[in-house]
Write a structure and sequence with these properties.
Layout: H1 12-15, E1 19-23, H2 27-39, E2 43-48, H3 51-61, E3 65-69, H4 78-89, E4 93-97, H5 102-109, E5 115-118, H6 123-137
Parallel strand pairs: 1-2, 1-3, 3-4, 4-5
């Protein structure tokens, strides 16, 4: 083996951190989530403040999962975005929401989310929701 070669010992899916897309239009909350994910050993595939930006990042980075705020500014809300992420890129979502009513909950079910995280949330709640979602995908 020459100095330029390397050998992969671990399976490829375990050799790099899980990539997660953050879709949150409040910069402070997005930054907090990014910090929590980094400390938990996840890789942030990008931070999007709108549906269009999230779709662009998903196309570029193919994340394993997206954390999506239900209420986004712009023409695409988080529920519609989660449906598009799943259909176009096979990226499942965990919804984030500060306030959710019965009608919104019913609409959200159509996106087949892997979980809901009520705002405000603790770092442990973010980590646990992601772990549950990843377990569901296996």
């Amino acid at each position: 083996m020459t100095s330029g070669e390397f050998q992969v010992v671990a399976p490829e899916d375990r050799s790099k951190p899980i990539s997660i897309l953050i879709v949150e239009d409040e910069a402070l909350i997005a930054s907090y989530i990014e910090e929590v994910l980094g400390e938990s050993g996840f890789r942030v595939a990008g931070i999007a403040a709108s549906g269009a930006e999230a779709l662009s990042l998903a196309a570029e980075n193919t994340p394993a999962l997206a954390l999506v705020d239900i209420r986004l500014t712009g023409p695409i809300d988080g529920i519609e975005l989660a449906c598009q992420l799943r259909e176009k890129f096979a990226v499942p979502a965990i919804f984030l929401s500060g306030l959710i009513d019965a009608h919104t909950t019913e609409r959200a079910r159509a996106a087949h989310p892997l979980g809901f995280l009520p705002k405000p949330f603790l770092p442990s709640q973010v980590f646990n929701a992601i772990q549950r979602a990843l377990d569901l995908q296996e």
